[in-house]
């Protein structure tokens, strides 16, 4: 029974069904943000929401039955359990904050869709490398904010009047949000300020931020390489099993042929011995 349940959970049709339930549930939760839709179809949306939650709960219960102790050793199972637990808390509670957490059920796509799971795994793998880049970026921001506060704090107090204000302005500049107007406002009193902004944008946007992309891409390449290696190992193991089966079949065929040959030879010998006896009996 357990093996049948395992095969049912791993079947692609069941996986597609779960993906469909997640998408439908996410769509109904989005429709609940429209007051007119809630007024006309509120009970139906609630029924669909509860039905999706029960399906997710039944799936988790089946996984616990199949995997037993191994269930808690899989991080994705713990992630799904946390999402469903939050969904039950939001259903039981009346707070709008808890009810808004129901949309977290859409995140179950991360554990159901293999491609999304690989992306998340790559991001987690890239975290150690990204930590060093975050420290570097923070250092560059801090140095630039101190310089900007001292250089342009008096002429542009609303942009660089204090260190926290300068940090926010430079972060806005780094993201490319309206940085042109910020630079023009400062350059109206400091014409050479373009040098500061150009160097800052080149260092932060075109160097440091691209390092994030490089680390993530490298982690994704490693993840794909490991999957390919695992697939090749599985294929090689399967091929070895098939080769061994072919050799066993060949040996069995040879043994059968030898047995048939031995049986034929024994029959000939037995017949050759019985013929003289029969001839002597006839002579008598």
TrEMBL record:
<protein>
    <submittedName>
        <fullName>Ion transporter</fullName>
    </submittedName>
</protein>
<feature type="domain" description="Ion transport">
    <location>
        <begin position="11"/>
        <end position="227"/>
    </location>
</feature>
<dbReference type="InterPro" id="IPR027359">
    <property type="entry name" value="Volt_channel_dom_sf"/>
</dbReference>
<dbReference type="GO" id="GO:0001518">
    <property type="term" value="C:voltage-gated sodium channel complex"/>
</dbReference>
<keyword id="KW-1133">Transmembrane helix</keyword>
<keyword id="KW-0472">Membrane</keyword>
<dbReference type="Pfam" id="PF00520">
    <property type="entry name" value="Ion_trans"/>
</dbReference>
<dbReference type="GO" id="GO:0005248">
    <property type="term" value="F:voltage-gated sodium channel activity"/>
</dbReference>
<feature type="region of interest" description="Disordered">
    <location>
        <begin position="263"/>
        <end position="284"/>
    </location>
</feature>
<keyword id="KW-0812">Transmembrane</keyword>
<feature type="transmembrane region" description="Helical">
    <location>
        <begin position="194"/>
        <end position="219"/>
    </location>
</feature>
<feature type="transmembrane region" description="Helical">
    <location>
        <begin position="16"/>
        <end position="38"/>
    </location>
</feature>
<feature type="transmembrane region" description="Helical">
    <location>
        <begin position="122"/>
        <end position="145"/>
    </location>
</feature>
<feature type="compositionally biased region" description="Basic residues">
    <location>
        <begin position="275"/>
        <end position="284"/>
    </location>
</feature>
<dbReference type="InterPro" id="IPR005821">
    <property type="entry name" value="Ion_trans_dom"/>
</dbReference>
<feature type="transmembrane region" description="Helical">
    <location>
        <begin position="82"/>
        <end position="101"/>
    </location>
</feature>
<dbReference type="InterPro" id="IPR043203">
    <property type="entry name" value="VGCC_Ca_Na"/>
</dbReference>
